[in-house]
Specification:
This protein is mainly α. It is built from 4 helices and no strands. About 90% of the residues lie in helices and about 0% in strands.
Length: about 150
């Protein structure tokens, strides 16, 4: 039994490292993409990225932990949810979505002190374009992978 645990632990550890590496790679591509689209000056970039990274960290936690956990509970328990629990989950989901909106509003207010308003609009467009391109890349990668074998 002990002989089987080490290979399993090594495999899980390698998966975690691979996932972390992929997240870091995607983040680096996103930084480059946004920097190019916004045409940030060096002074703007020095002030912009710490503010944006803080925003991204908070909103990622909300999206990837809070909202994902709520949706996971809904999927797992949909057939047995009571009306009371369903109402509680709707409230939690609305609170998480409101928190995302609040963070976006705070980001805009902070960025108005750093970059011109037009660049804030370009940021939203760049974020949407980046998400769209990443989704297309993901879909194409899985189409190619699905055709193998």
């Amino acid at each position: 039994m002990k002989k089987n645990i080490l290979p399993i632990l090594l495999f899980l550890f390698s998966l975690n490292i691979t996932a972390q590496h992929n997240r870091e790679r995607i983040k680096a591509i996103k930084v480059s993409f946004i920097t190019e689209k916004l045409d940030l000056t060096e002074q703007e970039a020095q002030k912009f990225w710490p503010v944006y990274n803080d925003y991204d960290k908070v909103t990622s936690k909300i999206r990837h932990e809070d909202i994902r956990n709520i949706r996971r509970e809904i999927r797992r328990n949909i057939s047995t949810l009571t009306d009371k629990r369903a109402k509680d989950l709707i409230t939690k989901l609305n609170e998480a979505e409101n928190a995302l909106h609040k963070q976006r509003m705070e980001l805009s207010a902070k960025l108005l002190q750093i970059i011109p308003p037009k660049k804030i609009i370009l940021l939203k467009i760049a974020e949407d374009d980046f998400k769209r391109k990443m989704l297309e890349r993901f879909k194409n990668k899985h189409k190619k992978g699905g055709n193998k074998g």
